[in-house]
Hints:
Elements: E1 6-15, E2 18-28, E3 33-37, H1 44-52, E4 59-64, E5 67-68, H2 74-79, E6 82-85, H3 97-109, H4 117-133, H5 149-162, E7 167-171, H6 179-190, E8 197-201, H7 205-211, E9 214-219, E10 222-227, H8 229-233, H9 236-243
Helix pairs in contact: 3-4, 3-5, 4-5, 5-6
This protein binds adenosine-5'-triphosphate (ATP) and magnesium ion (MG).
The site of adenosine-5'-triphosphate (ATP) has 12 residues, from strand 2 and helix 1.
Amino acid sequence: MTTPLLSLSGLGRRFGALAAVDDVDLEVPAGARHALIGPNGAGKSTLFKLITGAVPASEGTVSLGGADITRLSEHQRARRGISQTLQHSSLFLTQTVQQNVLLAAQRHHGSRHSLVPRRQSAARDRVRGLLADVGLAGRADVPVAALSHGERRQVEVAVALACEPRLLLLDEPAAGMSPAESARLVTLLTSLPESVTLVIVEHDLDVVFALATSVTVLHLGRVLLTGSPDEVRTSDAVQEAYLGTGRGSLFLDGTGPAHQEVS
Length: 263
Ligand SMILES: Nc1ncnc2c1ncn2[C@@H]1O[C@H](COP(=O)(O)OP(=O)(O)OP(=O)(O)O)[C@@H](O)[C@H]1O
Ligand SMILES: [Mg+2]
């Protein structure tokens, strides 16, 4: 059997008495489009932080390409190919689109590269290419503050790709997007090469089911189910987990919790 790109074993994180992530086992093969879903507070963002190293694990291991990276710093993990977009934006608003992506590329490659003019222009060419990939070719010189919400999310994907990830973690990339913007995001993510393995946390189930080749449902910090999109859609246990949140049935009408009123 081939080694999964990402492997989590018995992974846990406690905050005081709260087990935010509890004994999580998960294997994500290279090239997968894996979705992580679950009610608010299920532990999705914390699980991402355990993978990136932003938060240290209380127990268990994280492996990338078969190597145990549990004890590595966030920076060391980034150098090994883990990149992410955050639930809350971290762009520099007064800088242009191109400057934001260039800064990320320079941070990744080390600032000494930015002192060599030949490397500077190669880096700028690469950033232009990335912006074209994410559908922002004409927006390079626009300050991020002047962009729509959807365009900012596109910049964030470009920023994450500038770090040449093997594993790209996306935390709620479609949050706050219009239907047209989410559709564009799906097109963008679908067009990424298979060399970039995706794990996406998303409440918009239209996005999840348009993209995902496999899905994990997290509930109260634990894995409720990992399976194909169809297995997840038809699981009684998954329905119950969401019903318990008072959000009503999730999958029957094709809309996610973000679209539903909490009664
Ligand atoms: N730094 C922290 N200190 C204390 N508790 C935390 C911390 N970070 C997260 N938690 C708690 O851990 C639980 C899981 O939070 P997390 O943000 O991972 O959930 P989530 O699934 O991403 O939710 P959402 O869908 O709302 O983004 C929540 O109860 C949260 O309050
Ligand atoms: Mg979250």
